Amino acid sequence: PQIMKVVALFLGLTAAVVVESRSWLPSMGDGMTSACFNQYHGGGTVLAQCGGPTTTQVANNPDESGNGKVTEFVAITDHSIQLLDHAGTEHPWASHFSGFGTTNWGGGDEETLLEDAKNRFSAQAYTSYVGSNGNIWDNGCTHDCGPKSSLNLGYTSYFMQDAASLGYNQFFIGSPSGVNYYLPGCPNFKTGQTSESQNGECPRVDIEDGTFKFTILGLLTGTMVNSLNTAYPPAAGTIDGSENVERDIAQYTKLLYRSTLDLGAMGGTLGNYTTEVVGGVHDGKSFDELTSSDNLAGAKLRITGSKDGPVDLSFSDTYSTGSFTRSKADLLEEFGGCQESSGNVMDACTRDITGFKSGTDSLPADANKAVSKIGNAGMSWSELGSLAGAPELKVTEVRNMTITLRKSLGCVDRPDTPAARDPSGTGVSWPGNTGDCPWWYMATDHNTPASWVLGKGSGATHGVSGLIPEDYTLCEPGSCWLIDFHIELGGQTEASRTVFGNPENDVNEGWERGTFFMYDPEVVGNGPELKEFPWRWVILAVVATGIPLCCACCCLCCRRRMRAKRKKKDEMVGVGPHENL
Questions:
Q1: Is the separation of the CB atoms in 215 and 542 below 8 Å?
Q2: How many angstroms separate the first and last alpha carbons of the chain?
C-alpha cells in the first residue's frame, strides 16, 4: 500500500507583530521567505495566514483555477480574553508580555506533493497564555513558584483543501512553560454527550473542502485561581488585579473569547459590501441591525463583496469542557534533561501522544521526525491522553455557546512610541485609545524607555519580507467587528459554578490540576469550485505551536513551517536559535 506521510519543512525564529494598509498576503512576496503561507485553495475558497496572534485572510475563488487575483477578502484575528464580573462589567485578562509562539505547516502524500506541489491542508497556529505562567525548569525558585492564575491557550486556524470526516483533533500546547505536547482532544460532542457516555470515542463531523476553521483549547489552572473551591482551597495570599494579570475566576460569571473580524478589504472601498445573518432568530438582519446581546449561535454571518460573492462564517452552538489532573513526577520522568539537548531544545521538550491511528485521527510520526511519539497502537485514547504528565482532555460537560457581535470603535493610529512602560497592556502606554484594542497591541517591552512589542515601531517583523500585522489587517472604525464567544463560569456560590468555572486550586505547582474548554467555528467561501481537484486528503493537523520566547527582554516567536522536498526524506532546517521556555 502507498505510504502516506506529512512532509516536514523548516523551523525558525521570527518576530510576531504590525503597517498601514492591508493587502492580500501572497501579493506581498513569497510566503516561504516571509514565514507566512502562500495562497491556498479548495472548494470555493482561497486563504492565506500569518502571524501571532494569527490573522487568517479568507476570500472566494476568483476563478475556476483557484489562482486568479484576489481583490477582496475578510480577515479574522484572535483578539483577547475578557472576563465578565457578576455586575456585568468587562475586565481584560492579560499577561506580562513575553511573545507569542507561532507555527505553520501543511502536508500531504509525498509523491503527490512532488508532482503538483499542493498540500492537503494548511495551518497557522500560536500558543500563549494570560495570567502568570511558571516554568518547569526554574530550579532557582524556592517559594511561591506556581502561577496564581493562568489560562494557557492553543489557537489554530486551518484550511481544508479536501473534504474529510473528523473525529479526534490534534492539539499542540505548551503547559507548563518549558514542555510541549501534541494532545488528542474531541471538540465534537453535543449536549448530553461526554467522553464516558461515548466510550472514549469522538463523534465524527463531515467537513467540506474549502472550509477554514479555527480551533481553540484553553487550560485554566493556578495556586489561587478559584476562591470558591472547597475541595482544594486556594493557597494563602492575595490576588492583585491592578495589572490585569492575576485573576480569581470566582469573581466572574463569563469568560469572553474575542476575535476581530476585519471587513475593510471587502469591495475595495470602506463600506462597499453587505452583511447578513442567515438562519436563526435573527435571520435576514444586517450586522448593523444587531444588538450586542443578540445570540448568533447556530446562524451564519454572510459578508458579500462587490465582486466575488459572499463569505460565510458558521459557528457551532456547543463547546466542550472538563477537568484534569496530571503528574509532575511523570512529566519529569519523561522530559528530564531535555533542556540540555545539544540540538533543537523545542523538539527535545515536545512529546506526541496522539496515537497511531490512520487518516485524520492521529498526527503521523513523519509530521515532525525530531519529536518523540510515545505510547503504542494498543492504547486507548484515555491511556494515551495522560502519558508523560499531560492533561487528559476528558469531556464531562457540554454547554450551549452564546456568540455575540458588535462594531468595534477601532484600533488604529497608535503613537510611534509608548507614553509609558506597560508590559501587560493596561492602556497607560496609549492614553486616549478607544478601549477596543487588544492588550497585546498596547503592551510594551520591559525596558525603560519602553518600546512596543508588536506592530509598527516595534522592530519585530515576520521573516525576511519584514511583514507586520498592519500589512494584512486593520481594525478601522466602521469596518471592524468584535466577535465574542461566551464561556460560562457560573454564579457566586460553588454549587452554581460550571465545570470549567470551578477549577481546583493546586497550591504546590499551580498546574497539576485544572479545567479546560474546546471550541471550533468555521468559515466557508462561495466562489466557483475548482475545475479539478486530483489529490487525496491525508491528515488534518489541528493544533500545533511553539512556545513564547522572552530573552533579554526581546519578544520573539518560534515559527515552524512544512515544505515538500525533492528528496524522499524529511528535513528540519534551523533559522536562528531554537529555544523553549
A1: yes
A2: 41
